[in-house]
Design brief:
- Chain B: It comes from Microbaculum marinisediminis.
- The complex is a heteropentamer.
- Chain C has eleven helices and two strands; from the N terminus they run ααααββααααααα.
- Chain C is mostly helical.
- In chain C, strands 1-2 form a two-stranded antiparallel sheet.
- The relative contact order of chain C is 0.21.
- The model of chain C has no long low-confidence stretch (mean pLDDT about 90).
- Chain E is α/β, with parallel strands linked by helices.
- The complex binds adenosine-5'-triphosphate (2 copies) and magnesium ion (2 copies).
């Protein structure tokens, strides 16, 4: 689905990602691991068009993404849940979800109503807080809303940047279960950046490990989880 | 064992929503208390009540036996309670060192005239504040960034700067809201060590965190909230085994 | 009683003008956080465009359309050279730039249209309708009607569609808005152009009452600013009510208390309103979550 | 260690710059001897004082006030009335102006503690206009819209500053004192507290900064300075009337500080110099000078969004990149 | 050798329109003088500086002009600006002509010896307006609607003084701000007071608005507007017919004086527009100055002394007196708008 070849990207002329290549197969869940500052967020932002690549190719279903504005990337079927949640503070939970509606949502069976139901089922807390303004939500509630907005959009590919941040353990588990479920049922593809490697590797199919803007390891999640170096660095002793 | 902080019967409502209802607990000198609970259970709200940002509808908070409910945040800080924020609140226009020195402000007393005309007492106090700031920046590992802009810090470093700023107020109680968010497990372990050192100096700590590994290894006691109510209190072992906490918060896997 | 109705009518007319101005002024705030001090000149130029086109022999209605179109053009130029380069900067930075441009525009207006006060005819000549002891001025009624229609259209547009939410989302977090697929730049351009069009319309409509001078826009913009804040920063509904309230208070104050102190009265009422409702009638709903 | 040495190098550059600026200011009258140039310089100095004080609110504390010209007016009228109708010496007028505006500033700050953000701007705008209209209406005291004429030039301990040259030095000294005050303040715990309030009021509060007291102090201090500037204005121009202290002047004052760079010491100075002297310097383009002036403002904002004070930082940011590029090649 | 004549006037900003004709009047005089061989062979050269319609601009422009050492200065008509230059005029002792009509500018009020008014003081004009209403029109109930500034306040003071002579007071006194564009409330208050004549004092845009609203609100009595309400540029901007029948004050009207009428013809052919009377008065100012220079040379003190001696000098604009506390122009005329033009009703000298 997503094909990244020799991507170099960064800020103000200084590259963060160096010549990075990565593939996301249709219908798979791909996990990206890496230390703080490795460039994971930069990778996600480059895919979604918030950061302009300096060189290299980004192909979504064979069509180039590089140079597209963020809003056009969304139209191509990619939803990005950014690090730091970024819910709209002055809109209610419901309005935040309405704003995230895309053409794909409307076309899908059941349309927006169905999609909304799904989000509320996954995060009942959001349903309770339906009419509450974004800013006043607790940190975890905001995180749920951010993920909910991506689900409502019904994209082909969802980019999740540290979705577990600030989530309580139970919610966190049910979210990962839901990701697996969405993937199985609708065939939605996921690219997930996560500090909590253990959980991510549990649901993922493939994993990449980044260090200082470059890939240092890749393989099936099972292989990666077994790799002693990885285990030491990301899973904790 | 002396009790430093006593929270009794605190209730806080937002419109029709009761974010905290009748919550009580206490904290002893030099102890570390964990505050856990599902998202939206009222943990941050509790911190906001303790630090004076929100006034509770009911209940009282005493610090060393003196009531602090209804006091302005700056008075509470002067009384000995300092905190960090879940959503970072740094002073972006100040350097890293100055951020920490603002934290020291509540322990400074020189007059306006004294600082403008450079009275020796005022200068001494300013030097002392700078030294204190350096000490605490050193403590969180940011000493060499004293004159840098805050914007040059990574997310994790910013959290540490907030800790240094809170410590500069020489608090009796330090309150941390999700200090590990965005940190890797290794960094979280380092932070836990630092917090233990703080506690060893006799400062009591309240910490909110969803990182169970961090919490369980660090704290002396845990208070668990759900829907604004206290559902359990005890040692980490007791909490880990508590059925209510498992059902509401931890899930089976963590138990 | 006649006097009261007559004064109320005059206050409502002026209030509608303030509301119209405040609406355009607020639109850029609501959509992009842009406080546009050159709005004064946008309004002034609307009047001047009208005078110029009528001077060229265009019929009045065509001149009205022309003035609005020209104003939209001015808005487009602004979007390219003033607003876009400063996207994402602090709102005071844009304020400074617009102050600069407005100084230039005001000076340029004198060079183009000369220093003398100019006027436009109304659609209805100088005829009046007498209703009992009250005189109705057709042009004033037109202003009230147009304001009402515009407010209605905007209200429907913003509440019956999701555009209103998208506009708010754009203003609150442009990057996140783009991640939702919202065409941020298009939204903003739309807001700028609409705002400029409103300015041109206001400038044209008030020209027969206000006399087109290079300073005519400044006081109107200040009233728009006041209306925006009294109504609630960035709230379109607030801008309308704020404008109406200020206009009516001024008129009633002048009629029943003192014309010398009418501005003080209006300002004192503003102060009282702010003390009672520090964030305006329709407050911006955002605060900080800690 | 290298950091230390480059710091001292920086300080040395800064000291040299300061010395140069002082020398220029002291010798300026001998370069531009005419009364016209001195007259412009008088205005520049008065506005440096006013803008520096305004920046304590706007730049230091993040409070956008539109009523500052009202305080300036109160200062001017207090001094003018004291001196012309009671025959008090200039110093009494000056101090009276400072004290009264200080008190008014603190009183204004009381509602300002409750009201934040844009509403504060409107509140202060309303207060400023009320001040102006009240001055205009109190004919028995202020001579109403006719203004007060015949205000004498300053005289201190028998020494007259009637001539433009001595007056220049008097204004220069007071401007330097104001700047030194702002500079000291910025580096003190008070300055830090002001900045903290600007950046995050709630965090400042939680850090132990007494928000109410600090806001009152900021309003009071900037009002005192406005009062001093007002007094100096009255005694320099020798005529004041309510019309001068209009909202347009407020906008100019705001633009001055913003163009210069808010929250910096040098910003208001550069802003005042630019705003007063540039239109004069542009007189050669005749009736186009205002057009040119506005375009200059716009361009400078485009190039230096943080204000003229941001120029050195901009240059520094451009330099290493160019170096890096050269090194890369 | 050339003699510099300075001029401090608004060429930009809101006052530029009102002051443009003064430059023409001044220029006309200079051209005539130079064409006739100059003053003792020296040509007059006009140097203009712009006030930008602002007080600080007026101060700077004045200082700038002073630095070229002009023989005299033709100054702005905005009284407030002149007041703010007063200290400098006094310091320099430079002969300065102004069209400012404010009573404050009189040498025996707050003005200075070196300042010469080339117009009729508002003391005379405003009183003439009031007297016209009471004596000529025989009306009892006079109301005043005035701009809330130095100008408007000067008018109300003088009108009250004049009415007091007959033991009267205005039945209503209302004010407006210069940016106000709706005076319904004020007019209704005036109307409800049973007013028979309204005297309006304001700037040109104010008159355009007020005259129209007075009629729309059905006030049937007499309307007397201050000078700026009947300037040629204002007259042409009234809505068709709106100003018909209103009275206005002018210092002088050409039809009353053949010399003035002849001058107007020359002005028209030179600038292709109608002059207002103040242009003629600035013309007179330059002429009086030239005569004085021819007599006593360019020494400032001598010039001031010479000009202060003028008594009953008849110019094209009006008759001037500076001797014995004389305060410039002495004539006032009341005119009426008829078919869009002005008709002399009465004149006071
Ligand atoms: N806006 C920016 N401008 C300049 N440099 C940036 C910017 N954002 C990030 N960087 C730098 O790019 C590098 C990679 O940052 P990135 O945010 O991609 O890391 P990450 O892997 O997502 O880390 P984390 O786990 O902390 O989220 C870091 O060195 C960071 O300092
Ligand atoms: N200012 C506010 N206005 C309205 N509701 C609020 C406000 N602050 C918090 N709430 C609500 O109160 C509840 C408690 O919020 P709080 O932030 O204390 O949760 P929390 O326990 O810290 O959660 P998390 O772990 O997600 O940070 C939440 O449901 C939140 O939506
Ligand atoms: Mg990241
Ligand atoms: Mg929380």
């Amino acid at each position: 689905m997503l094909e990244i070849q020799n991507l170099t990207s960064g800020y103000a002329g200084m590259p963060v990602l160096k010549n990075l290549s990565l593939t996301v197969e249709t219908g798979s869940i791909v996990v990206v691991l890496g230390a703080n500052g490795a460039g994971k967020t930069t990778l996600m932002n480059t895919i979604s068009g918030l950061v302009r690549p300096m060189s290299g190719h980004l192909l979504m279903e064979g069509r180039p993404l590089a140079g597209l504005a963020a809003e056009d990337v969304v139209a191509a079927g990619i939803s990005h849940v950014p690090q730091g949640r970024r819910v709209f503070p002055g809109l209610t939970v419901g309005e935040n979800l309405i704003v995230a509606v895309t053409a794909a949502t409307k076309r899908a069976p059941g349309g927006f109503d169905q999609a909304l139901e799904e989000v509320y089922e996954l995060f009942p807390r959001l349903k309770e807080r339906r009419n509450q303004l974004g800013w006043s939500l607790s940190g975890g509630e905001q995180q749920m809303l951010a993920v909910g907005r991506a689900i409502v959009a019904r994209p082909k590919l969802i980019l999740l940047d540290e979705p577990s941040l600030g989530l309580a353990p139970l919610i966190f588990q049910s979210m990962f279960d839901a990701i697996a479920e969405l993937n199985r049922r609708d065939g939605t593809t996921f690219l997930v950046v996560e500090q909590n490697a253990e959980q991510a590797l549990r649901i993922g199919h493939r994993a990449y490990v980044m260090e200082l803007g470059e890939l240092v390891a890749e393989g099936s999640t099972a292989e990666i989880a077994r790799d002693p170096a990885i285990e030491k660095a990301y899973l904790g002793a | 064992m002396t009790m430093v902080l006593d929270v009794s019967g605190v209730t806080k409502r937002f419109g029709g929503l009761t974010a905290l209802s009748d919550v009580s607990f206490s904290l002893d000198r030099g102890k570390i208390l964990g505050l856990v609970g599902p998202n939206g259970s009222g943990k941050s709200t509790m911190l906001n009540v303790l630090s004076g940002v929100y006034a509770p509808e009911l209940g009282s908070v005493t610090l060393n036996g003196a009531a602090i409910t209804g006091m302005a945040p700056n008075q509470i800080t002067r009384a000995g309670l300092a905190r960090t924020f879940q959503n970072l609140q740094l002073f972006g226009g100040l350097t890293i060192g100055q951020n920490v020195m603002v934290g020291r402000n509540c322990r400074m007393s020189s007059s306006l005239l004294g600082t403008i005309f450079g009275f020796s007492s005022a200068r001494r106090e300013e030097d002392e504040a700078r030294e204190t700031a350096r000490t605490y920046l050193d403590f969180v590992g940011l000493a060499d960034r004293f004159d840098d802009e805050t914007s040059s810090l990574s997310y994790g470093e910013r959290r540490l700067l907030e800790v240094a700023r809170a410590l500069a107020a020489s608090p009796e109680v330090l309150m941390l809201d999700e200090p590990c968010a965005g940190l890797s497990q290794g960094e979280a372990d380092d932070l836990a060590d630092s917090i233990r050192q703080v506690a060893a100096q006799g400062i009591s700590v309240i910490v909110i965190e969803h990182n169970m590994r961090f919490i369980m290894q660090l704290v002396d006691r845990i208070v668990a909230l759900n829907f604004g109510q206290k559902i359990a209190e005890g040692t980490p072992q007791e909490i880990r085994a508590n059925e209510d906490v498992i059902a509401a918060y931890l899930g089976r896997r963590h138990a | 009683m006649d006097t009261f109705i007559q004064v109320l009518l005059a206050g409502t007319t002026i209030g509608c003008i303030y509301a119209l101005v405040a609406l355009g002024f607020t639109l850029t705030i609501a959509a992009a956080g842009v406080v546009n001090f050159a709005y004064a000149e946008w309004v002034t130029y609307g009047g001047f465009f009208g005078v110029m086109l009528v001077g060229l022999g265009w019929p009045l209605w065509l001149a009205l359309i022309g003035a609005v179109v020209f104003s939209v053009g001015v808005g487009y130029v602004f979007q390219r050279v003033v607003f876009r380069p400063l996207e994402g900067k602090h709102f005071l930075t844009t304020v400074t730039a617009t102050i600069g441009v407005s100084v230039s525009m005001a000076a340029l207006a004198v060079l183009i249209w000369g220093p003398y006060p100019l006027t436009l005819p109304t659609f209805f000549g100088s005829g009046i309708i007498s209703l009992g002891g009250v005189s109705l001025f057709p042009h004033n009624l037109l202003i009230i009607a147009i304001t009402a229609v515009l407010i209605g259209v905007l209200h429907l547009g913003l509440t019956r569609t999701t555009i209103g939410y998208r506009l708010q989302a754009t203003a609150q977090d442009p990057d996140a808005a783009r991640l939702m697929g919202i065409r941020v730049r298009r939204m903003r351009t739309l807001a700028y152009l609409f705002s400029a069009g409103l300015a041109g319309l206001a400038g044209f409509l008030v020209a027969p009452l206000f006399i087109v001078t290079t300073t005519m826009g400044f006081s109107l913009m200040l009233k728009g600013l006041a209306a925006t804040i009294v109504g609630g920063w960035g709230s379109l509904k607030g801008a309308v009510f704020g404008g109406l309230i200020i206009g009516i208070i001024e008129a009633l104050g002048a009629a029943y208390i003192s014309s010398e102190y009418k501005d003080v009265i209006a300002f004192l009422i503003v102060i009282v309103v702010l003390l009672a409702m520090p964030r305006g009638l329709f407050p911006e709903r955002i605060a900080e979550k800690l | 260690m290298t950091g230390r040495t480059s710091d001292t190098a920086n300080n040395r550059i800064r000291l040299a710059g300061l010395a140069l600026a002082l020398a220029t200011a002291a010798l300026l009258p001998f370069v531009l001897g005419s009364n016209y140039h001195l007259g412009v310089a008088h205005q520049v100095l008065i506005f440096i004082i006013l803008a520096s004080g305004y920046d304590l609110l706007l730049g230091f504390t993040g409070l956008l006030s539109f009523g500052h010209i009202g305080l300036f007016a109160i200062g001017a009228y207090t001094s003018a009335i004291l001196v012309t109708s009671t025959g008090a010496p200039f110093m009494v007028g000056l101090i009276g102006a400072a004290v009264l505006t200080g008190v008014v500033g603190v009183v204004i700050s009381i509602p300002a503690l409750r009201i934040k953000g844009h509403s504060l701007t409107l509140l202060t705008l309303a207060l400023g206009e009320v001040i102006r209209v009240v001055i205009r209406s109190m004919e028995w005291l202020t001579n109403g819209s006719h203004g007060i004429a015949g205000i004498p030039r300053p005289e201190i301990l028998g020494f007259s500053f009637r001539q433009p040259l001595p007056l220049y030095y008097l204004l220069l000294v007071i401007a330097l004192l104001t700047i030194a005050f702002a500079w000291k303040l910025k580096r003190s715990r008070y300055g830090r507290a002001f900045n903290a309030i600007r950046d995050s009021e709630i965090a400042a509060d939680v850090c132990g900064v007494n928000i109410s007291r600090m806001k009152m102090l900021a309003f009071g201090l900037s009002a005192v300075i406005a009062g001093i500037a007002g007094s100096l204005y009255a005694h320099t121009v020798r005529f004041i009337s309510p019309e001068f202290f209009s909202l347009g002047l407020t906008v100019i004052l705001l633009a001055m500080v913003l163009i210069g760079g808010r929250g910096t010491i040098i910003g208001p100075i550069l802003g005042a110099i630019l705003f007063i002297s540039l239109p004069e310097a542009l007189r050669f383009v005749k009736e186009y000078y205002l057009v040119a002036f506005g375009i200059t403002i716009w361009l400078s904002v485009l190039l230096l969004p943080e204000g003229l004070a941001g120029l050195p930082r901009r240059l520094r940011r451009w330099m290493p990149r160019r170096n890096a590029k050269e090194a890369g090649l | 050798e050339d003699i510099n004549l300075g001029m401090v006037i608004a060429t930009t900003g809101p006052f530029a329109g009102g002051e443009a004709s003064l430059i023409h009047g001044t220029r006309m005089a200079i051209e005539e003088i130079n064409a006739a061989g100059g003053i003792n062979g020296d040509n007059l050269v006009l140097v203009i500086e712009d006030t930008g319609s602002e007080q600080t601009g007026a101060i700077n422009a004045f200082n700038r002009i002073v630095s070229i050492e002009p023989v005299a200065i033709m100054n702005t008509t905005i009284s407030g600006f002149v007041m703010s230059q007063m200290g400098m005029i006094e310091d320099e002792g430079i002969p300065t002509f102004t069209g400012g009509a404010s009573p404050q500018l009189a040498a025996d009020a707050k003005g200075t010896e070196a300042l010469f008014r080339v117009r009729t003081s508002d003391i005379l004009v405003a009183k003439a307006a009031a007297r016209f209403a009471t004596e000529n029109l025989g009306l009892e109930k006079i109301a005043v609607l005035r701009l809330n500034n130095e100008y408007g306040n000067g008018w109300i003071r003088m009108i009250e003084e004049q009415l007091a002579e007959d033991g009267k007071t205005p039945v209503a006194v209302e004010s407006f701000e210069s940016v106000d564009r709706d005076v319904t409330a004020q007019i209704l208050r005036i109307k409800n007071a049973g007013t028979e004549a309204i005297i309006v004092a304001g700037d040109p845009p104010n008159h355009l608005v007020i005259v129209q609203q007075i009629r729309q609100l059905g006030f049937e009595g007499a309307v007397i507007v201050s000078n700026s309400g009947v300037l040629p540029s204002t007259l042409s901007a009234y809505a068709p017919g709106a100003a018909e029948g209103i009275y206005g004050t002018v210092d002088s009207l050409p039809v009353a004086d053949p010399a003035h009428a002849e001058w107007v013809e020359r002005y028209r052919s030179a600038y292709d527009m109608d002059p207002d009377f103040a242009a003629a008065e600035y013309y007179d100012g330059v002429k009086m100055l030239a005569e004085a220079i021819a007599k006593v040379g360019t020494d400032r003190a001598a010039l001031v002394a010479e000009l202060r001696g003028i008594d009953g000098h008849k110019g094209v604009g009006t008759t001037y007196s500076y001797a014995n506390g004389g305060d410039g122009g002495t004539s006032v005329a009341i005119v009426q708008v008829e078919n869009g033009g002005l008709k002399l009703v009465t004149s006071v000298d």
